[in-house]
Amino acid sequence: MKRKQGFSLIELVVTVAIVALLASMAVPVTETVIRRSQEQDLKKALYQIRDAIDAYKQAADAGHIDTPAEGSGYPPSLRVLVEGARDLRDIEGDKIYFLRRIPRDPFADPALAAEEQWGLRAYDSPAEEPRAGEDVFDVYSLARGSGLNGIAYREW
């Protein structure tokens, strides 16, 4: 009499249990990798916007762009960084651009426009209680929660 070839029920159950165990260990690692990637995107976006704000301020201080005499020299909005400011050194009135586009906050609601995803801090507002004003001195994430480093995204 010939024996049938195949797997027994016990072998099949053990194999499925091992695969399930491996999958349950991989899910948290995958979530951490995705979150770390989003945090790196957030840092990159903050650096881009802050560098553009600093470049605008330097151009204003150097007299390359038109700013109000009583103003701080910081941009009036994030949109100005994309739309550009008239270059006073150029006779034809070309513009100086500081950003190609406003970066998106990876933790924000994707339905919001990129400009609405950021909290704005005016020059005359304290760091502990940032508030918007007539200019944009700094930006911060409006996302709730904390990073893997334990610091709230709002404080990055």
From TrEMBL:
GO biological process terms held by the UniProt record: protein secretion by the type II secretion system
InterPro entries: Bac_GSPG_pilin (IPR000983), N_methyl_site (IPR012902), Pilin-like (IPR045584)
GO annotations of cellular component type: type II protein secretion system complex
Matching PROSITE patterns: PROKAR_NTER_METHYL
Transmembrane segments: none
Record keywords: Methylation
NCBIfam families, alphabetized: IV_pilin_GFxxxE (TIGR02532)
Official protein name in the record: General secretion pathway protein GspG
Organism in which the protein naturally occurs: Zobellella endophytica
Taxonomic placement: Bacteria, Pseudomonadati, Pseudomonadota, Gammaproteobacteria, Aeromonadales
